[in-house]
Amino acid sequence: xxxxxxxxxxxxxxxxxxxxxxxxxxxxxxxxxxxxxxxxxxxxxxxxxxxxxxxxxxxxxxxxxxxxxxxxxxxxxxxxxxxxxxxxxxxxxxxxxxxxxxxxxxxxxxxxxxxxxxxxxxxx
Length: 124
Fold this sequence. Notes:
This protein is an alpha+beta fold. It has one domain (2-117): Luciferase, domain 3 (Roll). The chain has two helices and seven strands; from the N terminus they run H-E-E-E-E-E-H-E-E.
C-alpha cells in the first residue's frame, strides 16, 4: 500500500498509532520527517513511548516487546466503566501503560507494529 501510494498518488502515507484508550494519536509520521515504510513513526509531543519486556524493563533497539506509554500523557484515561480490574491491568508496571501491542523501535526512534500480545502463543 505504501509503495502503491507513492507510485500512483505521488505522496507518501503518514501512518499513525493510537487506540481508544489513549484518547489521541500517540505515534505518528510527521510531515517534517522522513517516512520509513512500515513504521508508525515517532511519539508525538507529550508522549514518551518505549518497548518493554515481560518484566517491565526497557528493551534495546530492534528487539520485539510490548509497546508502552509513560504515564501520564495529555489525554490519559482515568478508568474503564465498571471494569477496574481491566483498567489496572493496563498499568501493571508502575509508571507505564501497556498497550497490548507488540512492537520494536529502531536506532532513530521509529516504532514498528508487529502484532498483538493476545495473538501470541508462548511455547516453553
